[in-house]
């Protein structure tokens, strides 16, 4: 059994730090993002955590992608981290808000120039006739933005913050008697309790 503090962000930070150390070359920031469209049809994909604090969990994407469109139609989502080496999982559910433009600008500027040009070249989630078309578009943006330090952020490339309403921590236990703790947000703060495995 693991001890759980009153604030779930303290426990997440401890587990996240442990996972990143134990994974070596693998990326502990990978998380499954589940969304649903306006007809409640779900979809999921892996994205990378780019920031976390008391306000929530941040990731960036193309607003015109399928996930971006679904987040705009239905601004509620779930995240799931699974760190196999640590035998731990964290599930998070909550509403979605945009980060500020300043936050998106700052993170976009920190990306590799190839990735920044790629954000301009890719009509994410749209049909692609041939990969050569994508490569050609990327090369065209290299000509358009030859200065690595002057590649602007596309207006459709945005940050999202999942503001958690529930966070569940799961740790593998012997004989499949796993440990589960659920935190739920209330008007007075966070409430926690154990769950059957």
Number of strands: 9
Q: Strand portion, in percent?
A: 35-45%
Spell the H/E element sequence: HEEEEHEEHHHEEE
Rounded to the nearest angstrom, the distance between the terminal CA atoms is 12 Å
Count of helical regions? 5
Unreliably modeled segments: none
Helix/strand/pairing class, anyone? alpha+beta
Mean pLDDT over the full residue set: 94
Shape: elongated
What's the alpha carbon Rg, rounded to whole Å? 19 Å
Largest sheet properties: 9 strands, antiparallel
In helices, the fraction of residues equals 25-40%
Features:
9 strands, 37% strand, 5 helices, nine-stranded antiparallel sheet, 197 residues
Write the layout of secondary structure elements.
Blueprint: H1 8-23, E1 30-36, E2 42-48, E3 51-53, E4 56-62, H2 66-73, E5 76-83, E6 88-98, H3 101-110, H4 113-121, H5 131-144, E7 157-171, E8 179-186, E9 189-194
